[in-house]
User: Fold these one by one.
Assistant:
Number 1:
Amino acid sequence: MLSEHTIPSDYDDEGDEFIDFESYYSVEDTDLNGFKDDSDFDITSDMNSDDESGSRISFLISTQDSENLGKKSSLSGSEERGLPKLNYNCLTTDQIYKLMLQRMENLQPIFNIPLEDMIILLQRYGWSEERLLEQWTEDMEKVLVASGLRTAKHDKIKRGIKLHPNFMCHICCESGEKETFSLECAHEYCLDCYKHYIQDKLPDGKIITCMNCDLALRNEDIDKIMGDNSSAKLMLSSIKGFIQKHSNHYKWCPFVDCNYVIQVGNISSLSEFPRFHISPYVICDNKHKFCFQCGLESHAPGDCQVADVWVKTAQAESANLNWVLKNTKECPKCGVNIEKNGGCNHMTCKSCAYEFCWICEGCWKDHGGSYYECTRFKKEDKNDNVESKGSLRKYTFYYRLFSEHENSAKLDWNLGQTVEQKVRALQENVGISWIESQFLPESIRALIEGRTTLKWSFPVAFYSDPSHNLTKIFVDNQFLLVNAVEDLSQLLQIKEPKKIMEKKLDFYNKARFVKSRENALIECGRDLLCKGICIPQK
Amino acid sequence: MASLPKRIIKETERLVSDPVPGITAQPHEDNLRYFQVTIEGPQQSPYESGVFELELFLPDDYPMEAPKVRFLTKIYHPNIDRLGRICLDVLKTNWSPALQIRTVLLSIQALLASPNPNDPLANDVAEDWIKNEEAAIEKAREWTRLYAKPK
């Protein structure tokens, strides 16, 4: 990394800046041998013809910023550039559960009740320790009764499984010799009914109570009834509740079938990111990169706002998502999409249990008698039908490019699956070591990341002022990245192991080239955002 | 119908042998999970002297899942919409397998006796109810006379 980079700390200054156009075109000083012989690959253009191998990326800013010009750092060192940095860990669900237990153990001395009961209390309070503590200090007995840990009347019946020679279960109405279960409340039902009942309730991640009253089943009861460790399933569902509650600190990896959770330590720094028009990207242990702020995949060069506006516009365009927009509302508290498929306007969010009014999306509690204000609630978004045909056409054009690259990325993903076989073939046929063959998976990763960046560069281009010079530079940069990506993609089509090994240097160079083009495009896009040339709006 | 759970048979038997006053529930001869229900309007309510027809269906998972109930007779009530759907906690979140068909029907009868316009299903009705309760009650009476005639 030989490039030098100067960034003023006060970036969003809109002065009469002099932009060093060459900077956006220049490339890192890579070993160019790899693609020199590639005739259809042309990174030169009129504007950077004499600066191809010189590797300076610099922004020259007007004199008013000159005091900041002294700061120089490498492209990779984001801290040195004064950009915020996120500290995070990647956790498995087991680790999360251990963490939850640890938090409970810390709380236990205050409550002085068994850990099993602590789990129930926290489930009842949606893992909000503050709320639980508050109510606990107010009225301990009330919390215990409300959470189903105490019966109102103290019957002297032991909870557990019993065997009755002749028992009639009131749930299934079958009678005969039966194993039964009851809590201290003496509501006794047969084990089969209880099994069925618990099975249905496990995915909810909520406390499971007696079928006839509010008394809660402990995890050990559940496991005894089910004959396995089903309570683990309940706890897994409960982890979702925990993460939902602490969504500031924890986020699920959004990739399909990925169960990792990212835990961020310094969440206060999150608010720093938008100012620099960058996003807090995190990478899970499966190497999935996503944005901790908005939960989308990596959407550089666009920032979260670009991604958000773009995705929402895209949704509005598609018939399916049109339906979602029409028929669902986001829970005002947790943002989960809710479809109202019947019932009254008193909504209770399934995921965060927030109670709100469907019409005005206000808290139901505050509603009281003044509910009828709601029918007078008017929607303001009725008069934006005057969208000109031209802008729609422009949008469709950009959207098509966006989705084309999305599809290509998916195809590359499939390609990535076959790379593993190629690596194995290399090891067996050509006899090279595992470590030596790692250039293949690395190349495919570079390819997919390049495509993703490319994909998200179209929203940025769409929202940018097309007459501005910097936008033109951005578009040229896009073009260069397209070429770099397609080149690498072509290289990855090679099937024979011997040929792959011969081209090893090519793989290295082209992957590195994609990376550097990607960085240049991201920087350029960030510049568009910082200078207010790219303004995402619906 | 051999696979009909004992619970449903028992409940049906009891509904016939020991009927709830003002409520009838007859299983359909082709489908013993489907009931034709009538509920008499409670005394001292706008629905008094009306007989309301409902349908009730016991899903496969009953009693783990709540029965599905719907009014067939037109009714002017803030918690019942024009399709006859009912906003009642025991039919949704507060269902428990320990509840029965008869307890559900009793709850519906109680809902007729005490409409709850603060938790409405039919917004327009609920609004009328709040704005001018007397007029709304009069309208409910009128609808009862018009549509809920005893057969």
Number 2:
Amino acid sequence: MATLIDLVETPVRELNQALHTPGGADVWRILNPRGAHAVACGIREGLAVDIEGHVGYYCAGMNQRATVTVHGNAGTGVAENMMSGTVRVRGNASQSAGATGHGGLLAIDGDASARCGISMKGVDIVVGGDVGHMSAFMGQAGRLVVCGDAGDALGDSLYEARIYVRGSVKSLGADCVEKEMRDEHLAELAELLKAAERDEDPADFRRYGSARTLYHFKVDNLTAY
Amino acid sequence: MCGIVGLHLREPSLEPRLGELLTAMLGQVVERGPDSAGVAVYGDPRLSPPGRAVVSLLGVTPAEAEAALPGAVAVAADVTTVVHADLPVADLLAAVADALPHVTVIGSGTNMAVLKGTGNPVELADAFGLAAVTGWQGVGHTRMATESAVTPEGAHPFSVGPGQCLVHNGSFANHATIRRELRAQGVEFASENDSEVGARFVSHQLEQGADLEKALQLLCERFDGFYTLLVSTGDSFAVVRDAIACKPALVAETDAWVAMASEYRALDVLPGIENARIFEPEPEEVYVWRR
């Protein structure tokens, strides 16, 4: 039996305090988020939290161990800086989904908009639909899987994050290139799709990564500064 | 920051509720812009009776306005005075310039009134009497000033052409250059505010014969910086964002209305939102809805 919190009656700060207090309930159901910011942020334990409706900014930010499911759309920065656990968005996510995430899985069933996975540092992100421009910008580690199309400048200034796209890529960003899909990539992609409860065929995807030409300063560019 | 809300009604039976809905929307974006606010409302019979020219003024009381403008009716809304008269709009503007040279005109046209002030947006909406306003379209803005002073004149919307309004979240980088170019072409400016340049640019393009889509496409080509814009005219409601699209925007659409807001929570107050089509406007794509 889930502990029920209605955000029409309970302020978000009280909800988050309750989620942070050791020894509380393991299963939570949040009603009427109505676009509120910072819902279910900073959880450190393996709770299960279901949010029934659309949330505002930074939902499930900094998540550790918990499984947070948004049964609706999420605003800017859902699961930003998540460390572990699983965050699911059943609808669409706004810009900067999973920004700077260190670990865990962010699964978005719908579309994600601009800068999905910006500066990702180890998080896995699986998007069922499309992603907007500059997704995985400066991505350092982790995997971004896009089952739909990717917008402009995908993977701009990428470090070591790996990107898989099933549909079209409008354009690649600086230093992002298509790479060979080897068996180990097909295997990790299959695992990621399964974890995100998706049934796309890994063979339909292409892989993108860093050409690693921006790691060091090129003396040829000296006159540019 | 800054918060934007706008509501374009398709269903006439909702028109009596325009002000109530706009007030509720504005109340959800107060944190985005707590220093000042403004609204433009289209079709309220008290502020803008059908067939009469309307000017919205700062720096004058209703009594002073009525004394200086024979035949005109003045309505107070916080520090704004809305004046309407049975004249062509250009004649009423000329009469204001002649009789009240010290006042600032913050809006003109038919069927539209602009109300602006400084302070908490919820308190301002109350001072405007916004909840009682009726009509078919309204736009609102809560301001966190970055480019110029916190004054009623600096609050949005910027309304510089007949029935036209522009509200802006962001900052234009090359506004000084464009202001110089427009001045060279004879366009007059009332402030050093960057958003005013956007409004003057759009109004200038419309005057030159561009339609609203074209005017906003030209704005995208010419302006550098960050912007989410909501632009309204006597028959249209339009949204455009810059190429980077870091300033938030959401559109929700039903058979009864089209609404735009900086954040979802401002749309959640609308009737029928649970069945609305909700989407984020794409960068540099111009969206226009017409009456």
Number 3:
Amino acid sequence: MNFLFFEGISQNPNSYLILAIIIFCAGIFTVLTRKNIIGILLGIELMLNAGALNFIAFSFFRHESADYSGHVFAIFVIVLAAAEAVVALAILLAVYQQRRSVSTDDISDLKG
Amino acid sequence: MDQMANYIWIIPAAPLLGFMINAGVSFFYGADAPAGLKKLSALLSPAVILVSFFIGLGIFLEMLGHGESERAVSQNLYTWIKAGTLEANATLYLDQLSIVFVLIITGVGFLIHLYSTGYMDHDRSMIRYFAYLNLFTFAMLILVMADNILLLFVGWEGVGLCSYLLIGFWFAVPKYASAGMKAFIVNRIGDFGFIIGFFMLFWGVFHYSGTTNIAFDSLKSVVGSLPGWYLTTISLLFFFGATGKSAQIPLYVWLPDAMAGPTPVSALIHAATMVTAGVYMIARMSFIFIATPFTLTVISIVAALTAFVAATIAITQNDIKKVLAYSTVSQLGYMFLAIGSGAFTAGVFHVMTHAFFKALLFLGAGSVILSAHHEQNILLMGGLRKKIPVTFITFFIGTLAIAGIPGLSGFFSKDEILWKVYSTPNEFFPELPLFLWLTGLITAGITSFYMFRLLFLTFFGKFRGDDEEAYEEVHESPLTMTIPLMILAVLSAVSGYIGLPESLGGQNLIHKWLAPVLALKEEPVVNHEMESHLMNLSILVSFAGAFMAYVLYILKPATPGVIAKTFAPIYKLLYGKYFVDEIYEAVIVAPLLKIRLMLNTFDHKIIDAFVNLTAVVTKAISRLHGIFDRVFVDGAVNNVATFTQYQAGIMRNLQNGSMNRYLYYIVGSFIMIYVFIRIL
Amino acid sequence: MDNHILSAITFFPLIGAVLILLMPSKSFKLMRWTSVVFTGIPLLLSVRLYQLFSPASTGMNQAELYQFVEKYPWISTFHINYYLGVDGLSVTMVILSALISFIGVFASFNIQKAVKGYFALYLLLATAMTGVFLSLDFFLFYVFWEVMLLPMYFLIGIWGGPRREYAAIKFFLYTLFGSVFMLLVMLVFYFSANTFSLVELSSIMISKDYPGYLNVSVIRNAAWILLFIGFAIKIPVFPFHTWLPDAHVEAPTAISVILAGVLLKMGTYGILRISYPLLPEETMKYAPYALGFLGVVNIVYGAFVAMAQNDLKKLIAYSSISHMGYVMLGMASLNVEGMNGAIFQMFNHGIITSMLFILVGVIYDRAHHRDIHALGGLIQQMPRYASFTAFAFFAGLGLPGLSGFISEALVFLGAFKVYSILTIIAASGIILTAAYLLWAYMRVFFGKLHEQHREFPDINAIEVISILPVAILILLLGVYPAPYLNVVEPTMQKMVSIFSDSSGLAFNLINQMSHYLFRG
């Protein structure tokens, strides 16, 4: 895997982690503020990817070249995100067909 | 030993086969069987009886060739009931006694079957009729051929069943149907005595001699070990059973009603089967009866009473069949009178002669009824002798026979009985034989009177019906009916000679034939001179009766009415048959019916009410429980619930369904958890 | 198959029930014929069982003498086994229940309401009945006994007549009341002897080496009485009998058939299987009163009340009470003749009464009522039906040549040895029975035919199929009862033998007679 170690790459993960935090917070912000469910889903997607970035970063800087568990986790996260998106969008479509709206204000059936 | 003995089973099997075929056809076609099948049935049914008769005759002829003690033949078919100590075989047994009955049943039975083919020709249900008739013969044959008491009981009840079916043959008429029922139930009362007698005999014999074999042959040798009172009880119970079948006081009431069936059936019941069953049974068990003089005395008294009572009733009856029915009861009284004196052979002799002349009279009456277009009231007949000469002549012979006119069969058998009654001393009441004899003699006179009354009213004088045309249309019956009449007339006339008493220079063949198999009292002192005197007396009485009838109904036909008016209470009593039916109704039937209603009410109003009350009480208690539950137990529970609900009311505001709010909660709680962990 | 023939007989109907539940609810025909097959196979198997059964060796308190035994641990903690086996007593009852279940299916063909549920419950009932007769484990016996109640309750309560709820609840409560007592006694036995096996229990009890609580004579006496009440309700014995007429009147025809044909027998079977071998001493003590005296009351009382009924079905229900009295009287005699008669009477009553109920069902289908007074002259309209009914009625009143006679005669014969006076009273039942049956027959079939009855069709093929096997059996066993009596005899010999060592019961007939007749 030598081709990945080119010049200019920092020797610690901090920068990656900071990026991940930024992306994650953007995700949370999106999730909390958006009324549109699609927006919320996008926010969730961002959060997942932030997590995946964390995994890659930590895995990369452990200096144990035989261990790819972090990568594997990242791939799992991607697959999971895809699956989740499929299910969520399917539910979303069904909801839309019924209510002609994807706004969270109109969907409050769980009200106690 | 014999060729024929192996074929004993055919005797009952042939009528059974006839029954099965007839019943099957009748079942499939109902009343609408094709004419061809009806013809076939009319051919088959008498034929099977004839087969039985010839087998019986063959065995009889073979018996003649053997010595006295070697005549009995038997055939074991299979083990019928085996349970514990009881072992009853289905064994057919023929000895001198039962062969006589077999020949009577199949012989007279055949003639009645033959006659029926003419009589029932136009009946829709003729095949059903023949099925019953064959079954009747079968049951009776089982009865007389049974080797043990239990098998005898099969035939015993079987004839009861058949009488029920045949008496109620024309079931559309409620009165006829209930006559059949009455016959069966009255017979059942007798059977009740019979079966209790059997139980006592079985356990008594088991207790005293250890024997469990219930065949008559083996019982004969062991009953001697039973104590006298015990045996007496048994024999009284058996006699009670016999009063049912053989129509004695107190159970004779079914027989007069039994004429509801077709007339040939009456002939069969009264002559060949059924009523003779009681006589046969007692003769078969003569070894018990002879050992119980008390029972014999009871039988004598009951029999004399029955003979007399029935004869007096017969005087006033106007229905041709009813007169004959009461005359049967009376004649059965004679048979039991013989038995009561221990003269079983004389009783069986009378069974035989009676079978001939009573069958003849009933069939003759049937012929009269059919000719007179189903008129049965003799007051509406008269002068029929020119119209139906064959019936008249044969009926006349029958009347002579039953009236005891010398030379004919009835005279010999009746006289034999009277002589035996007179000459057999009674150990309890020395005067009794004389009284019994006197009763018998008077009854003989009455018999002669009412029989000639019947004859004169039916055949002599002028026609008294309303419809002259009907008289013109009276016609003689077909040959199938008259031939049996003629044969029976001959038999009624001559059959007495096989019992020709020694005082008249005869051999008394029937006595000699039967004596080896019957237990008999030791012969009374032979006094032929006395016997002749008594005989002359009874001849005189018979002629006197006939003469009186001649005077009253031919010479001065107005007198009977005057007499009836003069002695109105007696006439009413006799005409009302001593009101025995009414008394039974009031004393026995009505209370029983009341009991059934009482018990039914008890069942509904007491027991069931108690059950329902329990239910109600349980319900009430559970209601109380319910109140307690609601107020206290549920109260506590409900308070808890109310409190919870109140709290929940506050909490539910958190959950407003807005997805964003939920997400805030999630993020907020994560932060709080983080802070919490940090602080710790 | 031969090794598990008993389980096969028991559980085949259950398989049928499951299959029926899987069927579409409209396919009536399929469900009917499935029921026919799944009751027919057990019938064939039970006939095979009869063939294989060897009458000579037979059970009671010796486990090795039971045949076709199947014994597997079920709930080992409480020593409960799945324990089936037959002796001469149960083999005949199994045949009876298989036969009655089979013919009952044909009598159910006219059921239109919720057919699926009906047949499923019916087959469950068939399994439970057979199970009761085959169990040799007290617990298993109890389980089957209770399982039987449930389908019966629904079958009466759903498919019954107008007052079906009342009748069903009455039936259910009555029998449940009885089985509570049985449960109690069962527990007493378990906690004393630590086993539920009836065979072991009987060998312990017969040896008189009483374990635990049973050493107390009061408990043994109480156990007998409680068991008796439990079984008496089922028989039913006079004052516990009032559920029977109600249940019969309301139940559909086939259920009446099962009820009278098999369920009543369980009471007497239970006494013979449990009370007799487990409590022989108490049996000897109480049999004269509880079975002998009450049996006679049953006979006479049942006959009288039957005479007062206008509902044909009620009449036959009361006649059942009367006829079960014969069974009790025979059992009370404690001798081979009487016991043989009692067992035979159980069988005969089963087949004769089944026939009677089916025949009443036939007329109910046509007239939609069973009022004797409103019928009449039917013999003109339905001659074949009349012939069958006459046959059944005469079988019911014990006509010689038909099977009922032999059992009644044996019962009386056996009982007479011990209780002569009671037997004489009981024998008057034969007159009363003749009276009410013939009276009913006359009212229904003779006399004038009502106009509105002129359209009635005669008995049809399905109805004939359902009664013909029974009719043939009645005739056959009446003429040649050996196939039955031979099978039962050794078992009864054995059962009687446990009572023979104590002669407390055996009155001397002769002394007793002379006492009553000439001094008393």
